[in-house]
Design brief:
Blueprint (H helix, E strand, L loop, with lengths): L5 H27 L1 E2 L4 E2 L3 H23 L12 H29 L8 H23 L6 H23 L8 H24 L5 H29 L7 H22 L8 H19 L26 H14 L1
Antiparallel strand pairs: 1-2
Helix pairs in contact: 1-2, 1-7, 2-7, 3-4, 3-8, 4-5, 5-6, 6-7, 6-8, 7-8, 9-10
């Protein structure tokens, strides 16, 4: 049965307009107010307002953990909506890995790099594993898969490690807004991928997955779209590399696609027989816990055996449905 989580879709609609406004404002600021030599904004009015808007979206996304109570999807959470950004992420991760290997080989020739050669090598390898993780998401549609979980953990480690790598990188100013936005995007994507991994391990936490997915999508799109606008409009790269920026964009689209897919997934309908047995068992447990003493006088023996006057009534399907509806209304 195809069900859309109204809470999630409403929340996405609520944050979409502020996110678009913040992204447009930052793009305008990058085109008109950014000093490309220093990496800082001259006035910083639009960039500051847009940063506050995205921060508010992230706080609101985190609050989703406490205000949401949605359905649990059981269908395969894969489809063309996530295939395209997953494929783009896989290709971008491969190019980023090639870039890191290029820096590593350059360091052997005496060129200066941001971190040590062994750490650069480890980062390049985990980037390859991240590319494989996105490929597995496309190839294996099963929700629970240990291979996807293993490579998913490697991808989360790579995103967090690459955020640290950007901090020590000397090609962009230390505290430039573009660098900070990229770092936040990679860290948010790392947190989101941890919950993607929980799905592959069969230990999903849907509200956290949705909250961090919206957060990762918002920060990633805010960081990447203005950088790409500047690159195509003026031919100037304000981030570490084009591959890194494309990967951030793909991560944002991927997180958004996954949130939307899980918001419109199938929900398993419980068979009427199972529902009847469950309600019967719950009623029986309540009777036993309440310690109803008058049942003993009506036929229950002292040794605990049920006498002939004791009767358990099996609720009909209509009665079971009515009881279940009352329970859901009470919740």
């Amino acid at each position: 049965m195809r069900i859309a989580s109204k809470n999630t879709l409403r929340f996405l609609g609520l944050v979409s307009l502020p996110l678009v406004a913040a992204t447009v404002m930052k793009a305008i600021a990058c085109l008109t107010d950014l000093n490309y030599a220093t990496g800082y904004f001259e006035l910083g009015v639009l960039s500051t307002i847009s940063a506050y808007i995205v921060a508010a979206i992230c706080i609101a996304s985190f609050s989703y953990l406490f205000i949401s109570k949605g359905q649990v999807p059981v269908s395969k959470p894969s489809g063309p909506l996530s295939f395209v950004p997953a494929g783009l992420s896989s290709v971008a991760a491969l190019f980023l890995s090639a870039e890191l290997f290029s820096e590593l080989f350059g360091s052997l020739s005496g060129e200066e790099i941001g971190i040590s050669a062994p750490l650069t090598l480890a980062l390049a390898i985990t980037s390859l594993l991240a590319a494989v993780a996105f490929f597995l998401i496309i190839y294996y549609e099963h929700r629970e898969d240990t291979r996807k979980a293993a490579y998913g953990i490697a991808a989360a480690i790579f995103f967090a490690a690459y955020a640290a790598y950007l901090y020590f990188d000397n090609s962009t100013p230390l505290n430039s807004p573009s660098k900070i936005a990229d770092q936040m995007a990679y860290l948010a994507s790392a947190a989101f991928f941890l919950y993607e991994t929980r799905i592959s391990l069969g230990r999903s936490h849907w509200r956290s997955h949705t909250a961090f997915g919206i957060m990762a999508a918002a920060v990633s799109l805010y960081a990447s779209v203005p950088a790409l606008v500047v690159f195509f409009a003026k031919g100037i790269l304000i981030t570490k590399s084009l591959a890194s920026t494309v990967l951030v964009l793909a991560l944002g689209l991927f997180a958004l696609a996954r949130v939307i897919l899980f918001s419109t997934s199938d929900v398993e309908e419980e068979p009427s027989t199972v529902r009847t047995v469950r309600i019967l068992a719950k009623n029986r447990i309540e009777e036993l816990n309440a310690g109803i003493t008058h049942e003993r006088s009506r036929g229950v023996a002292e040794d605990g055996q049920i006498g002939e006057n004791y009767e358990i009534k099996i609720p009909s399907e209509n009665e079971a449905s009515s009881t279940e509806n009352k329970e859901e209304s009470a919740e």
